[in-house]
Amino acid sequence: MESCGTAVSCTPAAFLLLHLGLISSMAHQNEFQTGLAGGEVTLNCTGILPDSKLSRHTVISWVYHDTLLWRMEKSNKYWKKPTFLTGRADIKMQYKQLRVWDLKLSDAGIYTCEYGPQKVRTSLHILKLTISSDGHFLQNEVPELILMQNSSSPLPDLSITLFDSNNNRVTPELQNKSRQKYIVNLKKLEAMDSGTWVCQVHSDSPLINQNISFAVKVLGFQNPDLERKYATVDSTVIFSWRLNSQIIKWKEGFTGQLNWKQQESASTHELLDFNVTAQGQLHETKKSSNFLFEIPERKPESTIEVKLPKVHFNHSGQYQCQLEYQGRHVQSEIELVVMKVSANPVGPLSRGANMTLTCQVSGPLPPNAYLRWERVNGTKMDSKNSKQHEVKLEVNINAAGLWSCHLIEDSNIKISFHYHVEEAPVWINYVIIGTSVGGSLLALVLGCLCIISGISWQRRRQRAKRMAQARQYLLENKTCQCQHWLKK
Q: What dihedral do alpha carbons 27, 31, 37, 40 form, nearest 10°?
């Protein structure tokens, strides 16, 4: 066989070999496609002409592994309709694309489109992401994600990256891992975590870059974690718990109740029951209780409120709002601290007199809080602070005016109780002075009378004693004279 001497003489042969290789590569094409369980995919018959340009003698078919799915010959269409695709697949006739919806893990595999000598093989890789509780959670719960994959080829090693509803990257805790199933736990959820999350799935071989979106609904409170409310005796206070059920459009039935107890170990009193209607509105029922409270008529949606029209000192304690959904619970507490002020003695303050003012709160204070007495427009000498953890503060005063007891937390005045100490009128002072002087004079007169009476009584006693002694002497003297006369 003669060898090519020049590049030009070899050109036809090289072109023929290249042409044959191109035909061979075009005749058999391999593609890779990723689908999500529950979603849909469209598999292409790459290179096929549209209907208007196809020959009447063109034979086109779709095959899943060795199972015929669909065949068209001389404009006659034939559906094999395998059981696993019943009601979930059709053909887009213009380009003979196979569309499959409501995908399942078992749909993974090799799908082949055949027309003439050409074959297009598509490897369908299915991913399935499931979330615990169907994506409905209560505050502080930890969701569990399960990612599964299926393919006719060896399963790749996947990397998982999560982003929350605020597009912040979340590092999950991997609980279990196999090539087929990945189980991860997320962080404890907060009400603000509600929204659409994204799970990014990546693989280098085969190349997979798939974003899977999933919804997370977190039913909870928008209140601070530790809320403390201060009130003075006889004031009005409203407790409010703001739910996010309207924001996340949570219409499934959940129930709840509002309880009150004075101390952690005290018995619980149920004040209120509530549930959500089919329209997503809250319905409240007041429970029978000796506790006097009201349910405000006007309030924001998805808000639980109770009103104490006149606070008593013993109304202090823990008010707990509790939600329940499918046997799970979450609660939020508001601590009520009540302040009262008393004076001893009660009444106007006379000039030169003293009075004791007492300020007391119903429960322990945080380390950064304290009580403070001060006289309005007074001096620094007219103020006094409590020590740490003291819930009662007394101050001795001798000046009338407006005195205020403040509860200060983090250098901010949380609540104040103003007590007006009245100054006794001048005539009352004169009456008091006159009474004092008159009392002193009366006491002096009575003392003098007692002394004079005592002296007189002492003198009468001594006189009676001397008379008794004289009678005794006379009696003894007469007895002696009678005895002398009888002897004679």
A: -60
**pLDDT tens digits for 171-208?**
888 777 788 999 999 889 998 999 999 999 999 989 99
Question: Distance (Å, rounded) from C-alpha 173 to C-alpha 181?
Answer: 15
Residue 315 amino acid letter? H
Q: Which of 438, 223, 426 is nearest to 331 (CA)?
A: 223
pTM of the shown model: 0.71
Q: How far apart are CA 249 and CA 217, in angstroms?
A: 9
Q: What is the mean pLDDT of the chain?
A: 83
> HEC string of 26-68?
HHEEEEEEEEECCCCEEECCCCCCCHHHCCCCCEEEEEECCEE
Calpha distance 82→85 (Å, rounded): 6
Quickly tell me which residue has 């002072």 as its tokens: 429
- The DSSP secondary-structure symbol of 83 reads G
Average pLDDT, integer, range 14-29:
47
Give the number of C-alpha atoms closer than 13 A to the C-alpha of residue 314, restricted to the C-beta side: 4
DSSP string, 259-315: EEESSTTSPPEEEEEEEE-TTS-EEEEEPP-SS--B--SS--TTEEEEEESS--GGG
Quick one: the chain helix, strand, coil %, rounded to 5? 20, 45, 35
